[in-house]
Design goal:
With 383 residues, this protein is of the alpha/beta class. It contains 13 helices and 14 strands. It folds into two domains: 90 residues, Fe-S cluster assembly (FSCA) (GMP Synthetase, Chain A, domain 3, 2-Layer Sandwich), CATH 3.30.300.130; 263 residues, 3-Layer(aba) Sandwich (Rossmann fold), CATH 3.40.50. The strands form three sheets. Strands 4, 5, 8, 9, 10, 11, 12, 13 and 14 form a nine-stranded mixed β-sheet that branches.
């Protein structure tokens, strides 16, 4: 029987359809189970979802319908959704892992090109998570592929800052798919894995270590240019574990201008140095509030939390680690930065002309310009 001449063109169109979570063609993933076309141009496509109740089922249906409808000669498209069986899921997982079945942290493997940048602070309340989210979006706007791992186990705020609410990752057996977010970000947080938002995480050292390994190894991150990791404040178990698991990672230290914050911020940078991570630089958040003077109608900067803390941290860490640790950015304090975070609309994308947005875009440029080098890095040498 002669094959319908539309079928090769339909298969080519389906090859351009990516799974929204895995970001690979659905044909490569084995998700296209059957394609038929009638002489009148009516097309039936059966697509296999990775799991029942896949949260992206509507998006997949829309993408398949749009791609096939664009093929010349197609008059009608019917998309049927099925579910992979165990063997099909195992084949997909094996393909995604390159045939390796054991759990490995991909970012720790030789030849991995993803830059892992941890965002740390000495204390809470300095805007570390806000810096992480807006830096990630600024990097994504520069054409980078970016993932965010919310490793702040007790204070996981990344999902709310990105407007993800109660979003849950798709779990394919023991493989976790990061949640797609604004700007093409791929996001995973321990908060997404809890049964309910109000559940308290009460873990100690060994469990924290296993949780970090799972978030790094069991999540299918795909090909990333950057993985930003939002660390818990302070110098505890998670910060130490990260340095051990990904020795090639880098650290950005976030502080605020006042002396009390800068002193404890130095400890976060010192911890990174002890773990043989490269300290990429310092970000001073809430640097000033710009306001219009009621008397002269000119803009003035009010330094609500003092001044100079970021410079003090950068200079102290430069002296301690014996290489240049610059002040990468000063982010102004503004109500818009807070309110947009509360609404889940980060300021970089919501108000791109805002001074804070310009600061984050400049920060992304600084991070991209400071290529990974041997300074401050652990070398694979022994004596």
């Amino acid at each position: 029987m002669t094959e319908n001449p539309l079928l090769p063109h339909i298969r080519a169109a389906l090859h351009e359809v990516e799974d929204p979570e895995i970001r690979r063609p659905i044909t490569d993933l084995g998700m296209v189970d059957d394609v038929t076309a009638s002489d009148s141009g009516a097309v039936h496509v059966r697509v296999l979802l990775t799991v029942p109740g896949c949260p992206m089922r509507s998006e997949i249906t829309t993408r398949v319908t749009k791609a096939v409808s664009a093929v010349e000669g197609v008059t009608e498209v019917d998309v049927e959704l099925g579910v992979m069986d165990d063997d099909q899921r195992e084949a997909m997982r094996s393909m995604l892992r390159g045939g390796q079945q054991e759990r490995q942290i991909p970012f720790a493997q030789p030849g991995n090109l993803t830059r892992v940048v941890a965002v740390a602070s000495g204390k809470g309340g300095v805007g570390k998570s806000s810096v992480t989210v807006n830096l990630a979006l600024a990097l994504a706007e520069q054409g980078r592929s970016v993932g965010i791992l919310d490793a702040d186990i007790y204070g996981h705020s990344i999902p709310d800052l990105l407007g993800l609410g109660d979003a849950r990752p798709t779990v394919v057996d023991d493989m976790i798919m990061p949640v797609p977010a604004e700007g093409g970000l791929r996001v995973i947080s321990i908060g997404m894995l809890k049964p309910s938002r109000d559940q308290v995480v009460a873990w100690r050292g060994p469990i924290l270590d296993r949780a970090l390994t799972q978030l790094l190894a069991d999540v299918y991150w795909g090909d990333l240019d950057y993985l930003l990791i939002d660390l818990p404040p302070g110098t505890g178990d998670v910060a130490m574990s990260l340095g051990q698991k990904i020795p090639g990672s880098e650290v950005i230290v976030v502080t605020t201008p006042q002396t009390a914050a800068s002193e404890v911020a130095e400890r976060a940078g010192t911890m990174a140095h002890i773990m043989e991570q490269r300290v990429l630089g310092v970000v001073e958040n809430m640097s000033w509030l710009e306001t219009t003077c009621p008397n002269c109608s000119e803009p003035h900067r009010l330094e609500l939390f003092g001044a100079g803390g970021g410079t003090v941290v950068a200079e102290a860490l430069t002296e301690r680690v014996v290489y240049d640790v610059p002040l990468l950015a000063q982010v102004p304090f503004d109500e818009a930065l807070l309110s947009n975070g509360d609404r889940g609309t980060p300021i970089v994308t919501a108000l791109p002309e805002h001074p804070a947005s310009h600061a984050f875009v400049a920060l992304a440029g600084e991070v991209a310009a400071r290529k990974q080098g041997l300074v401050g890095a652990r070398l694979p040498l022994s004596t």
